[in-house]
Design a protein that fits this description.
With 276 residues, the chain is an alpha+beta fold. 23% of the residues lie in helices and 32% in strands. The chain folds into two domains: 133 residues, GTP Cyclohydrolase I, domain 2; 120 residues, GTP cyclohydrolase I, C-terminal domain/NADPH-dependent 7-cyano-7-deazaguanine reductase, N-terminal domain (GTP Cyclohydrolase I, domain 2), CATH 3.30.1130. The model has no long low-confidence stretch (mean pLDDT 95).
């Protein structure tokens, strides 16, 4: 478990406060998990963003009439802190009985509070239900590898030694799997996700990638660290010209978390999958 997470509200009984309380946000430094991967804030081998989508965003108009919407939050991958997910939900719930004169005022409040917690500017969009409904859901790009016949019996820790490639053949391709699962390091609750690998480099053996992703099944870590571990293991193996790894996780508690990591600057579209 991340040492800071022990002091967070995650896994504990919590009072749900319905009036604006920014102090509910609980930042967790990324440095400890980065150290486990052998990187520091000064040597990060990736760029990217963590998209959070909130499906339980509500507040009051000056008249007292409630509004519901969907919030989209973009937290830089190099921000000093992640925001612990239950504290994020508690903070958003504290807006439920709070009056805002306009969406602009609400959005400015969210930017201020979330940026302070993350330690870097956080992008915020408040979207109407009609906007999100019109967007619909999308399919992941590239080839799905889930139908491959593989065997595995160890699910406790990620096993990078399962990965293999052909160093004599260079390819550019995109593959994906819906079989990613890990567990919350605090509560033990399952986190379900779909992962995409886009790269140009040594030809990755697809069956080895699938068994590697399945080896996360009982692994306990936060969403962001799982994606960063996958990214680094693939980068070390493939020695790619470029590499992007991202995961779209199923929502829990009204929030989904979608980390993107890449060798270069990216501006990915935040599009929902069928399980989201």
């Amino acid at each position: 478990m991340h040492p800071a997470a022990e002091h967070s509200p995650l896994g504990k009984s919590s009072e749900y406060i319905a009036t604006y309380t920014p102090s509910l946000l609980f930042p967790i430094p990324r440095t400890a998990k980065w150290a486990e991967l052998g990187v520091t804030a000064q040597t990060l081998p990736w760029q990217g963003v963590d998209y959070w989508n909130c499906f339980e965003l509500s507040w009051l108009l000056p008249s007292g009439k409630p509004v519901v919407a969907i919030g989209e939050f973009a937290i830089p991958a190099d921000s000093p802190n992640i925001i612990e997910s239950k504290s994020f939900k508690l903070y958003l719930n504290s807006l439920n009985q709070t009056k805002f004169a306009s969406i602009g005022e609400l959005q400015a409040c969210l930017v201020k509070d979330l940026s302070a917690a993350a330690g870097k500017p956080v992008g915020v969009q408040v979207r109407t239900l009609a906007e999100v409904e019109a967007q619909g859901v999308v399919a992941l790009p590239g080839q799905c590898i889930d139908a491959l016949d593989v065997a595995i019996d160890n699910y406790e820790q990620p096993q990078p030694e399962l990965l293999s490639c052909n160093p004599e053949r260079m390819v550019e391709e995109t593959v994906h799997s819906h079989l990613l699962k890990s567990n919350c390091p605090v509560t033990g609750q399952p986190d379900w996700g779909s992962v995409v690998v886009e790269y140009k480099g040594r030809a990755l053996d697809h069956a080895s990638l699938l068994t590697y992703l399945i080896s996360f099944r009982q692994h306990a870590d936060f969403h962001e660290q799982c994606v960063e571990r996958i990214y680094l293991d693939l980068k070390n193996l493939l020695q790619p010209e470029h590499l992007t790894v991202y995961a779209r996780y199923v929502r829990r508690g009204g929030l989904d978390i979608n980390p993107y990591r890449s060798t270069g600057a990216i501006s990915p579209a935040n599009l929902r999958l069928v399980r989201q």
